[in-house]
Specification:
By secondary structure, this protein is an all-alpha fold. The protein contains 5 helices and 2 strands, in the order βαααααβ.
Length: 173
């Protein structure tokens, strides 16, 4: 078993304001996902390691790029944007990677969406309500969206732990 030792994540403050606490935990989980992908080549990042599931580390990064875009830009700021990877024919296209998909593209797309999400967050207060309705017809406070994003990353980071361990035996937070 290999233990991951390259942990450069920023620990969230234990005494920060609510906004700084929420964004600190979200950034910590963002950094965790990318840490789980470090040191692997494209083929490994495209490897569905837990049959019969087709889930891959690259697919998780693509999915979270879609999720960042949806909650911050489409829901919070009411931008009308096309999906990044999903299509009418393949609603889970973010998870369905091919041999042509690369880490460089997936990571750059994810990073651009995180950058945009940070800009949206900085332009609102925690009590601000989304300009757009979700697919379920609800509006959400920025506080709710940040909390949901922490949950989304935490859940998928659990998947990433299992995928990474199966790929090369690396374990760690």
């Amino acid at each position: 078993m290999i233990v991951m030792t390259t942990d450069v994540r920023t620990e969230p403050s234990t005494t920060a304001s609510e906004l700084d606490m929420l964004t600190g935990f979200l950034d910590y989980h963002r950094e965790t996902l990318i840490m789980k992908c470090e040191g692997l080549d494209d083929a490994q990042l495209r490897t569905p390691s837990l049959a019969p599931s087709g889930l891959t580390l690259m697919g998780l990064v693509r999915h979270l790029a879609e999720v960042e875009r949806y909650w911050f830009r489409e829901i919070m700021d009411d931008e009308d944007l096309p999906d990044l990877y999903s299509t009418e024919q393949d609603h889970d296209g973010d998870f369905h990677v091919t041999d042509q998909d690369t880490w460089a593209e997936a990571h750059a797309t994810w990073l651009a969406q995180v950058t945009d999400a940070r800009k949206v967050t900085a332009s609102h207060g925690l009590d601000d309500v989304s300009a757009s309705l979700s697919r379920g017809g609800k509006r959400f406070s920025l506080r709710w969206i940040l909390t949901h994003m922490i949950e989304e990353y935490a859940r998928h980071n659990g998947h990433a732990d299992l995928l990474r361990e199966h790929i090369d035996g690396a374990t760690g937070e």
